[in-house]
Amino acid sequence: MEMEEALLEAIEDSPTDPAPCLVLADWLEEHDQPERAELLRLGVALRRRHNARDHAGVVELLAAGARPGWPARTNSLRMQFALVPPGNFLMGSPRKEGHRGDDEGKQHRVEIARPCYLGVHTVTQEQYKAVTGKSPSAFRRGGANGDRVQGLVTKAFPVDTVSWPEAVELCRLLGELPKEKKAGHSYRLPTEAEWEYACREAGTCRAPFHFGRSLSADQANFDGNFPSGAAPKGPYLFRITTVGSYPPNALGLYDMHGNVREWCHDWYSPTYYDRSPARDPQGPDEGTTRIVRGGNWVTYSWSCRSADRDSHLPTHGSSFVGFRVVLMRG
């Protein structure tokens, strides 16, 4: 394990250098972890040149239960964070993508210049209460939608019904915890560009979903009566569910296509892509609504696409909106 940790540190220190990834892949294969090794090799190949067959191999391995090989960190609350390496990607959707919105174009190349650690899961009810002392979720005992979760343990459900300022405040309070301050950690919401880049597996996935061109309710939590592509109908839970209940993407991120939409840092503008900077865009300087990304438990599959954009009044929480956070290391 010391060797694996050292190689993971090397990947973190030089996330654009393929050599540490390939060395780690060889080490994993020698230690009876061939699936993780193959995922790392395919990830290196995809970052060099996109290939639909290689990406299909990634999807197959993850669906079979392979654990991603990218570095991850755990903080003092046992929240997990996956390394999102720097790189560039095509943001938005191509003209021929089904159900695309006018605000998803024009498709444009964006550079994410700095690596970051993004939450493997959305913030859970238990984690939110541990930091703030509050339990705002509709999907809990005594909540507005408590009747839909009777008999269920909801502490590992995403926290919902949290406004944008409350999500930002969680980030501040989390960074003020003594063990987090000692570790030099701070927290923030991801930008919209960072979110889509991570959903697209650091730009290696160009399909509508990190699963490919289809999405079924066995892959994400949404209204399963309206799947995409050749996927079959159903099931439809009509509620949120435990984080990490569906397969992750190649970076080890769960629930990017369903369960709850997620607050991002940016203000929303339907025309922002027309003037968006090519490097680390931060969104408009002002607005009336904030960006939320990802599908949720009540949307149709096409609203779960990587490029789909939506917005929400920042002062209003909702039972279909949660958030994940970025860990910044000092």
Any overview of this molecule?
The two termini are 25 Å apart. Helices cover 26% and strands 14% of the residues. The mean pLDDT is 94. The longest helix has 15 residues, at 34-48. With 330 residues, it is an alpha+beta fold. Helix 1 (2-13) runs antiparallel to helix 2 (18-30), helix 2 (18-30) packs antiparallel against helix 3 (34-48) and helix 3 (34-48) runs antiparallel to helix 4. The protein is built from eight helices and eleven strands. Strands 1-2-5-11-6 form a five-stranded antiparallel sheet. A four-stranded mixed sheet has the order 9-8-7-10. It has a two-stranded antiparallel sheet with strand order 3-4.
Can you describe this structure in just a few lines?
With 330 residues, this protein is α+β, with helices and mostly antiparallel strands. Helix content is 26%, strand content 14%.
List keywords for this structure.
4-stranded mixed β-sheet, single chain, alpha+beta, 330 residues, 26% helix, 5-stranded antiparallel β-sheet
Question: What are the SSEs and their pairings?
Answer:
Layout: H1 2-13, H2 18-30, H3 34-48, H4 52-63, E1 72-74, E2 80-84, E3 87-91, E4 108-112, E5 116-119, H5 125-132, H6 164-176, H7 178-183, E6 185-188, H8 192-199, E7 261-267, E8 290-293, E9 310-312, E10 321-322, E11 326-329
Parallel strand pairs: 7-10
Antiparallel strand pairs: 1-2, 2-5, 3-4, 5-11, 6-11, 7-8, 8-9
Helix pairs in contact: 1-2, 2-3, 3-4
> Which segments are poorly predicted (pLDDT under 50) over 5 or more consecutive residues?
none
Order of neighbouring strands in the sheet with most strands: 1-2-5-11-6
Globally, the shape reads globular
Tally of DSSP helical segments: 8
* DSSP E strands, number: 11
Q: What distance lies between the first and last C-alpha atoms, to the nearest angstrom?
A: 25 Å
> What's the average pLDDT?
94
**Beta-strand content:** 5-15%
Helix fraction bin: 25-40%
Structural class, judged by helices and strands? alpha+beta
